[in-house]
């Protein structure tokens, strides 16, 4: 009898627990809202995606000086994410013969944390 009462108690506790709640910043459970990918196969491409957690990215690349000694890829893009602090960060960048050059913007909530800057520049 004690076993049945204990089992009923455990089942009622398990059923009373609230279901997991999806949060907008839960990137492990985020759904893809938009995805685009276009690779021409001739030296240029672009892609973009957006997720339910607020993450977005757009990027385009183009091969320049094709066939010349200084042929190289130029990549431009931007990505947006919501940090653990609830602040929306937007990083716009270009990567070309001069290296990776990011510009960081943030929404309301304060300065860009040093760790974020270091991870983007390092």
Topology:
Blueprint: H1 2-16, E1 32-39, E2 44-51, E3 56-64, E4 72-82, E5 88-96, E6 99-106, H2 114-121
Shape: flat
Q: Tell me the span between the first and last alpha carbons.
A: 64 Å
Residue stretches low in confidence (pLDDT < 50, at least 5 long) are 5-15, 17-24
Give the biggest beta sheet. Answer: 6 strands, antiparallel
Largest sheet: spatial strand order: 1-2-3-4-5-6
**What is the rounded Rg?**
23 Å
Q: Structural class of the helix and strand makeup?
A: alpha+beta
Total DSSP helices: 2
How many β strands by DSSP? 6
Element order: H for helix, E for strand: HEEEEEEH
Average of pLDDT: 77
Approximately how much beta-strand content do the residues carry? Answer: 35-45%
Helix content: 10-25%
Describe the structure.
The chain is 19% helix and 43% strand. The protein has 122 residues and is of the alpha+beta class. Strands 1-2-3-4-5-6 form a 6-stranded antiparallel β-sheet, covered by helices on one side. It starts with a helix and ends with a helix.
What's a quick, concise take on this entry?
A six-stranded antiparallel sheet has the order 1-2-3-4-5-6, with helices on one face. It is an alpha+beta fold.
Task: Give the key terms.
122 residues, alpha+beta, 6 strands
